[in-house]
Design goal:
With about 140 residues, the protein is of the alpha+beta class. It is built from one helix and eight strands, in the order αββββββββ. The protein is flat.
Length: about 140
């Protein structure tokens, strides 16, 4: 019984010592300034309003470019930069029965290319204002 207690105490001592050594303050912290000029995003889209009665969820792919304001970073030296985005969105059509006949709404595709400004308000927060042309078509 006494041997079990000693082994348990030794195990606790070893575990606490190893966790104290793991928290070495002399360890070098990684550089947080890992910013990139390019960003690619993909995601799901949910239609709203009357459009949701004829189309399912869709997907979107978008490419954005700015001057080193994307990624993990400290607060940048220049807080305002240009922003250029281009992307494509696609919504799938729903199937329904009209007067006893099946009907499939066609897919809906949107293309866009925007330009504007991007403001870094914090280390991880950006606010963008963009405008530009877009084109939509039913497949």
């Amino acid at each position: 019984m006494k041997i079990k207690r000693l082994l348990f105490a030794a195990l606790i001592l070893i575990v606490s010592t190893s966790s104290c050594l793991a928290q070495d303050t002399a360890a070098r912290k990684p550089d947080l300034h890992i910013s990139r000029p390019n960003e690619v995003a993909a995601g799901m889209l949910l239609p709203l309003g009357d459009f949701s009665s004829t189309h399912f969820a869709g997907f979107q792919v978008e490419y954005s470019r700015s001057k080193h304001l994307f990624g993990k970073r400290m607060l940048p030296e220049t807080r305002i930069s240009y922003l250029v985005t281009a992307g494509i969105s696609y919504y799938m059509g729903k199937k329904e029965t009209v007067s006893g006949y099946p009907y499939l709404y066609p897919g809906y595709t949107q293309f866009h290319a925007y330009g504007g400004i991007l403001v870094a308000t914090g280390a991880q927060i950006n606010i963008g204002l963009t405008a530009g042309p877009g084109a939509s078509l039913y497949n």
